[in-house]
Amino acid sequence: MPTSRKVIMQRQIINTLGVQADIDLDSEIVRRVNFMVDYLHHTRAGGLVLGISGGVDSTVAGRLAQMAVEQYRRVNPDWTGKFYAMRLPYHIQGDADDAVAAIEFIKPDVDIEMQIGSATDALAMSLKDATGEEPSDYNLGNVKARMRMIAQYALAGEHGALVVGTDQAAESITGFYTKFGDGAADIMPLAGLTKTQVRNIGDRLGADSRLVHKIPTADLLTNKPGQTDEAELGISYDDIDAYLSGDAINDDAREKLETIYHRSEHKRRLPVRPSDDWWY
Ligand SMILES: Nc1ncnc2c1ncn2[C@@H]1O[C@H](COP(=O)(O)OP(=O)(O)OC[C@H]2O[C@@H]([n+]3cccc(C(=O)O)c3)[C@H](O)[C@@H]2O)[C@@H](O)[C@H]1O
Ligand SMILES: Nc1ncnc2c1ncn2[C@@H]1O[C@H](COP(=O)(O)OP(=O)(O)OP(=O)(O)O)[C@@H](O)[C@H]1O
Ligand SMILES: [Mg+2]
Questions:
Q1: What's the order of all strands across the beta sheet hosting 82-87?
Q2: Is ipTM > 0.95 here?
Q3: Ligand 2 shell residues, CB under 6 Å
Q4: CATH number at residue 200
Q5: Contact indicator for 196, 22 with CB cutoff of 8 Å
Q6: Is 182 domain-assigned?
């Protein structure tokens, strides 16, 4: 591809995802907290709900969510809404102590631990009984992510609360999330941030550096616990962030990233309907 076309494509993707290479951390924290406060006010919602894994994204989004409910409560003392943090292990979670450390940092109004092991396994068993087919480890991983979505929406429904999503630009560009699983949410406070910016905000907020600089994992596979995102994606977060920041990366990585971006376009759109034609 000629250099000018490469640059135009990169710029279009950066603009679509709303990435800003240079951010002021303090004003970015204020802007994102105010955004949640403003939306709580507008919707009169009964609080916020978020799954806390022990990874950096939910640590940072969780702390921002708790800051938002505290700020909203200060100006609306009669408001009874809360931030509900949910630890949702599938049986035994290898890094469960990180999820506890994240909760200690976030200091949520409500800390809930709920097993998704039995519900997930029951779904897989029912599918097998009905069809004779057992979901692969890969597909079961997506069922785990969707079971967490069901748990969060069940709790949100009880309290009229909104489900927070942790999608940021490095995940959005790759579609590296489960469609209607962790990709499903009502409010996305980290949207448009690179992974590095999420970490920088985590550092600025004073989160434990063990959590902030932890190697990212979706941790969805039973047969490969803690598999790193980078191993599965075949591309590094450094390359993804450099691309999102408008820097040049090597041609192989760029081509791979743009292929993944185009292939995952359906995840960034509403379900296709007869009046759509964006995929041509
Ligand atoms: N072109 C198209 N137009 C419209 N819909 C399309 C489609 N292609 C597939 N689909 C639909 O999308 C489904 C596939 O999408 P999906 O179910 O998401 O499945 P898929 O993208 O295959 O898997 C999710 C990926 O995200 C990763 N992940 C998941 C969860 C969390 C994290 C994390 O970082 O924490 C990472 C996971 O490791 C895996 O690599 C298909 O089954 C089909 O229903
Ligand atoms: N075991 C879990 N308990 C509760 N929520 C979870 C769990 N695993 C994943 N989630 C939810 O799914 C989201 C997506 O997972 P993802 O791995 O992308 O984020 P993370 O774990 O917060 O950070 P990182 O990407 O750096 O690992 C999490 O932010 C969290 O909200
Ligand atoms: Mg994770």
A1: 110-113, 82-87, 47-51, 162-163
A2: yes
A3: 50-53, 55-58, 86-89, 93, 148, 166, 182, 216-218
A4: 3.40.50.620
A5: no
A6: yes
